């Protein structure tokens, strides 16, 4: 039996074609879970699937293009995953991105887009998979959130506000779903290596710096005590803990995965 005790359980990962989501899929397959994952970009999604199938030829998995902001698309994904892998016991909500803007330069449309993304990327999957989760003992929902939920940044005002709302939503769902034997938790990430940071690195002015040097300087500027960016695999490990029976007495909580960047105890 694997450490996370998820062997033979069906786990859903949204935003699973890259970054933290893909790291979750990899670790879940390693521990013998059945995994259905989705993403909006078909090319990136099926490229990830091909790589995973070559590494895990015996694994049971499903990759499906899905827009988590489209309720019908998520319902179709839920039906397909249940038919192929069986009812879901775990739902990992990972879709989302950050918006750089201040209060003065955030338009009404941008506010609506950001709030819609952060809330309905969770609401739609939870609704679509709720009946499956209710049918499974010890079911779990895990939401990937940001440290911005606790300490907002003025240059990311809309994202910070939406992230705080998502943290509150996790707590509300945890209380409401507890009688259904469904736990709801989240993680708060700081700066984690991603395609976004890689693109900023590619456009850097300090051309003499390699990736390790550049990210070390970034961590210093951001005052990250551990002196580096986090790895997607490190965030995934925290997610799998919350998804697994190892955290059976934990709900409505968040794990800080920020390298000490949090200013709150």
CATH fold annotation of the largest domain: Rossmann fold
Beta-strand percent range: 15-25%
Strand count, sense and barrel status of the largest sheet are: 7 strands, parallel
Q: How much helix, percentage-wise, in residues? A: 40-55%
Strand order of the largest sheet: 3-2-1-4-5-6-7
Question: What's the number of extended β-strand segments?
Answer: 7
The Cα radius of gyration reads 18 Å
Description:
- The protein has helices at residues 19-30, 42-55, 71-85, 108-134, 157-177, 195-202, 211-222, 232-243, and strands at 10-13, 34-39, 61-65, 88-93, 139-146, 182-189, 254-257.
- It is α/β, with parallel strands linked by helices and 265 residues long.
- The chain folds into 2 domains: 10-192 and 231-256, NAD(P)-binding Rossmann-like Domain (Rossmann fold, 3-Layer(aba) Sandwich); 194-229, no CATH class.
- Helix 4 (108-134) runs parallel beside helix 5 (157-177).
- The longest helix is centred in the middle third of the chain and has 27 residues, at 108-134.
- The radius of gyration is 18 Å and the shape is globular.
- 42% of the residues are buried.
- The mean pLDDT is 94.
Q: Would you spell out the secondary-structure blueprint of this structure?
A:
Layout: E1 10-13, H1 19-30, E2 34-39, H2 42-55, E3 61-65, H3 71-85, E4 88-93, H4 108-134, E5 139-146, H5 157-177, E6 182-189, H6 195-202, H7 211-222, H8 232-243, E7 254-257
Parallel strand pairs: 1-2, 1-4, 2-3, 4-5, 5-6, 6-7
Helix pairs in contact: 1-8, 3-4, 4-5
Output the keywords.
265 residues; alpha/beta; Rossmann fold; 2 domains; 8 helices
């Amino acid at each position: 039996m694997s450490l996370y005790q998820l062997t033979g359980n069906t786990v859903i990962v949204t935003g699973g074609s890259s970054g933290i989501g893909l790291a979750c899929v990899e670790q879940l397959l390693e521990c013998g879970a059945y995994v259905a994952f989705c993403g909006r970009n078909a090319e990136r999604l099926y490229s990830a699937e091909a790589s995973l199938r070559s590494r895990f030829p015996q694994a049971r998995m499903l990759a499906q293009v899905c827009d988590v902001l489209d309720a019908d698309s998520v319902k179709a994904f839920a039906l397909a995953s249940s038919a192929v892998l069986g009812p879901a016991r775990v739902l990992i909500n990972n879709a989302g991105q950050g918006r750089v803007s201040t209060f003065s330069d955030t338009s009404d449309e941008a506010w609506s887009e950001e709030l819609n993304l952060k809330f309905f990327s969770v609401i739609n999957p939870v609704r679509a998979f709720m009946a499956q989760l209710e049918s499974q003992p010890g079911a779990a929902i895990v939401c990937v959130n940001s440290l911005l939920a606790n300490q907002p940044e003025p240059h990311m005002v809309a994202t910070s506000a939406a992230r705080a709302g998502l943290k509150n939503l996790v707590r509300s769902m945890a209380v409401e779903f507890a009688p259904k034997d469904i736990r709801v938790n989240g993680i708060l990430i700081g700066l984690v290596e991603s395609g976004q940071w890689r693109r900023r690195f590619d456009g850097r002015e300090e051309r003499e710096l390699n990736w390790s040097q550049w990210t070390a300087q970034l961590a210093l500027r951001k005052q990250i005590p551990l002196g580096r960016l986090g790895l997607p695999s490190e965030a995934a490990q925290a997610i799998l803990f919350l998804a697994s029976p190892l955290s059976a007495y934990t709900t409505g909580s968040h794990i800080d995965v920020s390298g000490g960047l949090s200013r709150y105890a």
